[in-house]
Amino acid sequence: MEPLRPAGSGLPQLHPLREELYAEPHARPFPWVQAPVRVSHLAILADPGEAAAHRACLEALAQVHGVAPPAPDTMAWYADFPGFTVRWERHTEFCAYTFLRPDGVDSPFTDTALDALPPGWLETLPGELLVATHVGVLAGDPPDPFSPELAALFGDDLLIGSLIVDDRAAVWTTLKLHADGFSRYLVYNAGLNDFQAGRTVQRLLEIETYRVFALLGYPEAKRIWPRVRVLDMELAELIDRLARADTAAAEQQLLKELSVISQAIEHMRSDTNYRFSATRAYMALVDRRLEDLRERKYSGRSSITKFLERRMRPALDTCVSVDAHLQDLSLRVARATEALRARIETTIEDQNRDMLNSLNQRAWQQLRLQQTVEGLSVAAISYYLVGLVNYGLKGLAKSGLPLPVESVTALLVVPTALSVWWLVRRRRRRIQASPQERLDG
């Protein structure tokens, strides 16, 4: 995309992402909520490729009611329908649907916002439903925390609630699924304007959604924990054997076993790294949203923050612990492998040194043998040369020349031997000389 330059503005070229970055903080505004209102919220697991299918379902809903459909590449869509409002948002691994329907004073959880949708439309949504919750927002001061009417709205389950947003509202929930398959929140607005009420409802929906998605890592942690413990014990036993290994074969076997453990650990880390990272990220979002609620507990009732801290934190700590244990195992395997490789390399260097010493010894022996053979060669060549000269002198003597054959032969022995020794030595030096020395010589 080419950078833009506004005509006649006198400004430099504009970055192509400038408008998108400015618009991002306003891309997903809070809804304006005027009590009484019923809210239904769904979070559906969706792969990136399913976003188009979700938009197609929204287009079908918009067509039924004559509403403008969402844009092809939109990540969030908000529209007012006759009698209800739809809010749709595409997140990293899920799509969130929020439906708001005015009224609901008498039955916030029986006649819900979903009942305003066309029959069968929800069944067309792709993906797997993970989070489903109903929120009822009523105007006025909250009732007594222990009133039977309040308990009856939640099926007489253990109530969790508190005053929130500087005591200008109160929220009640059980943080569990009810018979209809939905969790429930009941909010009493005692002094919030429509924007503040919408922001509070949005925070409650995000707490419900993110806490459930954070717990997706817990089954993974329980699944791999026994294998992690086994690998931990195997690694400890292997490191103990490493300290006692005294042969190259034992070290090679240990290296193979370390490689197997390393592959198993990295395979588990690859399978769980995204899930555990997402767990930490979701829990950080839950913590921030709980802080924004600014809860003040009722006497005798647990607040949402305290309940989640007591009941949910151990599961999340398990995920963090297993992830940290995997990272520790990976580092320990890497250190043990490095130490073992250093030992093996030292052993190889010692073997190479011994081999070189052996080669040097053999070379020295060959040199001594060569020198011995060279001496014998000089004696043999001298013997044959002197013998040939002796045959020649004897022939000349028989032909009538007065030659003292034995005396001349005796005189030729030393010069012949010296000459042969010099020639052999010169030849050996030429063989041992460098190419440049041969050219110079």
List the helices and strands and how they pair.
Blueprint: H1 18-23, E1 37-45, H2 51-65, E2 76-81, E3 84-90, E4 94-102, E5 128-139, H3 148-152, E6 160-164, E7 169-173, E8 183-189, H4 194-214, H5 217-244, H6 248-293, E9 296-297, H7 304-311, H8 313-398, H9 405-432, H10 435-440
Parallel strand pairs: 5-8
Antiparallel strand pairs: 1-4, 1-5, 2-3, 3-4, 6-7, 6-9, 7-8
Short note summarizing the structure:
The protein is of the alpha+beta class. It has 10 helices and 9 strands. It has 3 domains: 26-213, no CATH class; 217-353; 368-432, no CATH class.
Description:
The chain is α+β, with helices and mostly antiparallel strands and 441 residues long. Strand 6 (160-164) and strand 7 (169-173) form a beta hairpin. The protein folds into 3 domains: 26-213, no CATH class; 217-353; 368-432, no CATH class. The protein contains 10 helices and 9 strands. A 9-stranded mixed sheet has the order 2-3-4-1-5-8-7-6-9, sandwiched between helices. The radius of gyration is 46 Å and the shape is rod-shaped.
